């Protein structure tokens, strides 16, 4: 088995966060889900762990506090889309699940189409598609 990645995110409302991640099409993993946290499978070895704010805090030391809402950003979670349309679909599903557009879809470089959404707690998810030609010749 390869290494696994768990993105741990605090939430103020677990049910609301679950609605968002379900709308994105992620699969709930009941093995790692309970009244304090929900585990969502993005891919075989990539998971999002959404933890109630109080439970998330139990993993922090040195007086650190969970960050929710807008303001300072420490991370941008980024995933790929298989098609350009997949980017637009992801954004639509995020909005339907209670999220919002953080950065509208655009094409910052030839062959790269991207957007970013915010979950209900303010965590940002970037979604991007790159054409096979752009991936073969990233310098242009």
TrEMBL record:
PROSITE patterns: VOC. Residues 3-130 form the VOC domain. It comes from the Bacteria. SUPFAM superfamilies: Glyoxalase/Bleomycin resistance protein/Dihydroxybiphenyl dioxygenase. InterPro entries: Glyas_Bleomycin-R_OHBP_Dase, Glyoxy/Ble-like_N, VOC_core. PANTHER family: BLR2408 PROTEIN (PTHR36503:SF2), BLR2520 PROTEIN (PTHR36503). This is VOC domain-containing protein. The lineage of its organism: Bacteria, Bacillati, Actinomycetota, Actinomycetes, Micrococcales.
